[in-house]
């Protein structure tokens, strides 16, 4: 199904941008953080909130950030804390920041840097928070290593407690933290996906020979992940049986860049790509979907495309569901356009 957009547009971002994050810890409203990617201008972090009348997206805070933002994640247990990966004079850096006390002010103000995530010798790619609440650990990933940190945001401290090396894996790109097991993450490289045990920093089960751009865990079903891949579009996997995927979805007409499970309606899946489109899928996975025992393509026709949101003029690198209202999601195109959409018309088709 093809569709334009009847969503709510936020026009406050003045520069190009790639990162948007749901503020999960804000239980009172639908709120997002987004950061800009300007080479010459002073970059900004915008706190974007849906108005009480649900008729507009308003700027609830505008904060200077010293560098181009390549990754941004909101802390899942403190709505004023978030992490960024950014360019620096030495290459790339990462830090955890705190938003000042004031709220509802659109004038730019300075963020408080709680601590840097230093010690990386490679290009930092991602920072991961465990998604389901308060946890005193944080993960940072560069192109050669995975660092596990012990953090204390109250005392503004962070200490590396273990480190894992990619060894012969080419170019780590990112990953996702298992919401069902805080000792496990899925990390992606240029040609594979591996599971890492954070207790030993050993890597195990793998999806080989796949150029995976993104990975996301199903929040309701253990062992189920979705991947966004260059060759195959979107694939659903059971981590206990990785010989073949459970399901294939066509993806996008150009690169499929990112994929996200809905936090409540776990059969709803969002994807976005460089074809300037966001797709909403009904990606049903049951306990009987164990995948084929012999080579063969999973059946695509079983997976309906519920809607395509096409009212964009640039590549879409950021999508995020609202934790406060899981029927809503925000998308961010590279030109800095944020759009909030509702999927309520499709919930009855679950």
From TrEMBL:
Biased composition (Low complexity): 286-298
This protein's record includes keyword Repeat: yes
Gene Ontology biological process terms in this record: protein ubiquitination
Keyword Repeat part of the UniProt annotation: yes
Positions of the EIPR1-like beta-propeller domain: 5-281
WD repeat residues: 249-281
Keywords: Repeat, WD repeat
UniProt-recorded name of the protein: EIPR1-like beta-propeller domain-containing protein
Region: Disordered, residue numbers: 285-304
Homology family: Belongs to the WD repeat EIPR1 family.
InterPro entries: Beta-prop_EIPR1-like, EIPR1, WD40/YVTN_repeat-like_dom_sf, WD40_repeat_dom_sf, WD40_rpt
PANTHER family linked: EARP AND GARP COMPLEX-INTERACTING PROTEIN 1, WD-REPEAT PROTEIN
């Amino acid at each position: 199904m093809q569709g334009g957009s009847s969503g709510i547009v936020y026009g406050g971002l003045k520069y190009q941008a790639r990162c948007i994050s749901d503020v999960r810890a804000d239980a009172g409203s639908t709120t997002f953080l987004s950061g800009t990617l300007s080479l010459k201008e002073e970059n900004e972090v915008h706190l974007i909130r849906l108005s009480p009348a649900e008729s507009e997206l308003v700027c609830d805070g505008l904060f200077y950030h010293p560098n181009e933002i390549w990754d941004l994640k909101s802390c899942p247990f403190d709505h004023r804390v978030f992490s960024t990966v950014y360019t620096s004079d030495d290459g790339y850096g990462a830090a955890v920041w705190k938003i000042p006390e004031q709220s509802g002010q659109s004038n730019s103000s300075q963020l408080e840097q709680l601590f840097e995530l230093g010690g990386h010798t490679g290009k930092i790619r991602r920072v991961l928070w465990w998604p389901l609440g308060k946890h005193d650990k944080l993960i940072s990933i560069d192109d050669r290593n995975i660092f596990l940190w012990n953090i204390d945001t109250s005392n503004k401290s962070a200490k590396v407690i273990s480190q894992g090396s990619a060894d012969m894996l080419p170019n780590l790109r990112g990953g996702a933290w298992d919401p069902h097991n805080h000792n496990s993450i899925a990390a992606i490289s240029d040609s594979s996906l591996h599971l890492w045990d954070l207790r030993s920093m050993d890597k195990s089960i793998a999806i080989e020979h796949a150029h995976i751009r993104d990975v996301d865990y199903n929040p309701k079903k253990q062992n189920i992940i979705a991947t966004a891949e260059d060759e195959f579009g979107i694939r659903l996997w059971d981590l206990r049986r990785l010989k073949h995927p459970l399901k294939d979805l066509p993806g996008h007409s150009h690169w499929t860049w990112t994929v996200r499970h809905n936090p409540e309606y776990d059969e709803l899946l969002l994807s976005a790509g460089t074809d300037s489109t966001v797709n909403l899928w009904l990606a049903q996975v049951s306990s009987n979907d164990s995948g084929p025992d012999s080579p063969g393509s999973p059946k695509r026709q079983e997976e309906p495309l519920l809607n395509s949101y096409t009212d964009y003029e640039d590549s879409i690198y950021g999508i995020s569901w609202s934790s406060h209202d899981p029927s809503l999601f925000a998308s961010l195109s590279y030109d800095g356009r944020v759009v909030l959409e509702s999927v309520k018309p499709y919930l009855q088709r679950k």
